[in-house]
Each structure stands twice: as structure tokens, then as C-alpha cells.
User: Which sequence fits this backbone?
């Protein structure tokens, strides 16, 4: 048996915190710090030859000129969610003007070659569970005006892991989405101290779109999460990978590159996990997949050998 390892990255810039902008977020998510974080992350992935899924908030993946072109539609949407989009538009146009445009990050990911996947993390990052169908339809119209890489995305990561409106994913051309664990922040933090966490198994039934195992947050070494020793987070990941290599299970880790911008030593935890992934892969005990790879393999297996061929 071999473990199956997935790494997905929620790429948000400031769109991920538009409703809770603070002085710290303005400082941590400056253009300069975001570039440093993404470059460090891509260098780490290159070092271990690990392909990842970069799920971009649609607006973050666009340049300033295209977002400016979409501004009239965004201001109309802001009337439905003023607590979220109004602060974003204000800071983007008359405030710091930093942290909102990551077209360079999409280009950097694509420059690494075809192994990495560009996925979608919503268009505005407004959580889908807080809005109705009309808002999702408006996001779909905005999605049709994004750059070709984001329009072509085939897998999805829900903003704030708030899963809703799954039937509408097909309207975006989406074939798979990351599932979520229903936990409070305190419960999620408590799990970081367990080294006996089992790997995930494939979803049953398969689903359409395909549900991708929810996975685990790479511990963000910020605030109370700094209480978790780095060695413990790495040991937890290694033990999950070892168990998965014996059972054929799935180990899916995820984080935000923005977590590295605000707490750079978060990268040390990911480095320790990826080092073990590389060792197991070299021994033939681990396969590295993007979210799209996982969906295709699962769908092929469900269809049978003849259809998969």
C-alpha cells in the first residue's frame, strides 16, 4: 500500500480577512510580505519536488486593472454583504491599497511548471453559507470575467470552509471540492496535541462533484497555536503518513500562504512534514497528488479499468 498525500493552499491576500481588517493584518499582509511568503513556499515545494493545489480567491488572482474594471459589479454585490465587501473596496481604492492583487502569485505558480494546480477559493471569499443563490449566481458572472487560469479551475476550496450550494459548483466547471471538519477553534487546536490522528479514507459515496478529504491545518505558529511545539506538529504528520502508507489512506494538509507572511516559522512545520513525504515517496510508500489528481484517480477507479483507460 502507499500513502496518498495532498497539499492545498488557500490563497487569499486580504480578501480572506476583509470583514475583520485590523492594524496587524494591514502590516502582516502587505504586498512585500505576501511576495516573500509565496516565494519561500514555492522554493520549499521546489526543494522537495512536491506539487500542490493553489486555490486562489478569484479577485486576489487578478491584477489591479481587471479588479478596477469589475468594481461597479462589486459595489452592487457589496449592498448584499456590506460588512464584507465594503471594507475591502474602501481599503483597495482609498486605503492601504496593498494585499488585494495577487496576479503575480498566479504567474509565479504557473512558472514552476504544470505540476501545480490552480484551483478556485471563491470569487470574493464571502462564505457561501451566509448568502443565497442570487449571490452565487453573481459570483459566477464575475468568475466568467476572470483570467483564463482561474476560469479553468476544476477544484474548489470553500471560503472559511463553509460548505453550501454544492449543486452550483458545476456552474463554475468544478468537479471536486475540499470537505470540512465541523470543529470549534478550541477543538481544532486541541487536536494538534494528538499524535494518534488517523489518516483519512476516500469519501463514500463518491459524490458529484467529488468530495476531497478535509485534511488537517498545518499548525499556524501564531497566537495560542505557538503553544504547540514544532516537533510535535511534525511528529503528528509523520505518524499519519506512516499509517497511511500501510493502509492506502489519505493525508491532506492545508494552510494559507498568508499564515507564513504573519508567522514565518510556520514554514518549518511544513518543511518537516514534506521531508517525510519525500522519504516515503523515495521508498515507494507515498504518492503526491493535487486535488485534481485525486479526483481524477478516484473517478477513474469508480468507473472501472476499461473506462479509466
Assistant:
Amino acid at each position: 500500500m502507499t500513502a496518498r498525500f495532498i497539499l492545498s493552499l488557500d490563497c487569499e491576500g486580504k480578501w480572506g480577512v476583509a470583514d475583520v481588517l485590523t492594524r496587524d493584518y494591514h502590516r502582516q499582509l502587505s504586498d512585500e510580505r505576501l511576495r516573500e511568503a509565496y516565494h519561500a513556499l514555492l522554493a520549499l515545494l521546489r526543494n522537495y519536488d512536491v506539487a500542490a493545489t493553489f486555490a486562489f480567491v478569484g479577485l486576489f488572482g487578478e491584477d489591479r486593472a481587471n479588479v478596477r474594471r469589475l468594481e461597479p459589479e462589486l459595489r452592487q454585490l457589496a449592498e448584499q454583504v456590506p460588512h464584507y465587501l465594503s471594507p475591502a473596496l474602501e481599503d483597495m481604492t482609498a486605503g492601504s491599497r496593498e494585499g488585494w492583487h495577487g496576479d503575480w502569485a498566479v504567474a509565479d505558480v504557473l512558472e514552476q511548471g504544470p505540476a501545480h494546480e490552480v484551483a478556485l477559493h471563491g470569487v470574493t471569499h464571502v462564505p457561501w453559507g451566509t448568502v443565497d443563490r442570487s449571490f452565487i449566481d453573481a459570483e459566477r458572472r464575475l468568475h466568467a470575467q476572470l483570467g483564463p487560469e482561474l476560469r479553468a479551475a476544476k477544484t474548489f476550496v470553500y471560503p472559511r470552509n463553509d460548505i453550501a450550494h454544492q449543486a452550483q459548483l458545476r456552474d463554475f466547471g468544478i468537479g471536486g471540492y475540499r470537505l470540512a471538519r465541523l470543529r470549534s477553534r478550541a477543538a481544532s487546536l486541541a487536536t494538534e496535541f494528538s499524535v494518534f490522528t488517523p489518516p483519512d479514507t476516500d469519501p463514500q459515496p463518491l459524490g458529484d462533484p467529488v468530495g476531497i478529504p478535509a485534511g488537517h491545518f498545518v499548525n499556524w505558529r501564531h497566537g495560542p497555536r505557538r503553544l504547540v511545539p514544532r516537533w510535535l506538529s511534525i511528529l503528528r504528520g509523520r505518524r499519519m503518513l506512516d499509517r497511511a502508507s500501510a493502509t492506502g489512506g489519505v493525508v491532506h494538509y492545508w494552510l494559507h500562504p498568508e499564515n507564513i507572511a504573519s508567522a514565518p516559522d510556520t514554514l518549518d512545520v511544513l518543511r518537516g512534514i514534506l521531508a517525510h513525504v519525500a522519504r516515503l515517496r523515495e521508498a515507494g510508500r507515498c504518492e503526491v497528488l493535487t486535488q485534481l489528481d485525486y479526483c481524477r484517480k478516484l473517478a477513474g477507479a469508480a468507473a472501472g479499468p476499461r473506462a479509466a483507460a
User: Anything to note?
Assistant: DSSP finds 13 helices and nine strands in the chain. The first helix runs from residue 23 to 28. The first strand starts at residue 3 and ends at 11.
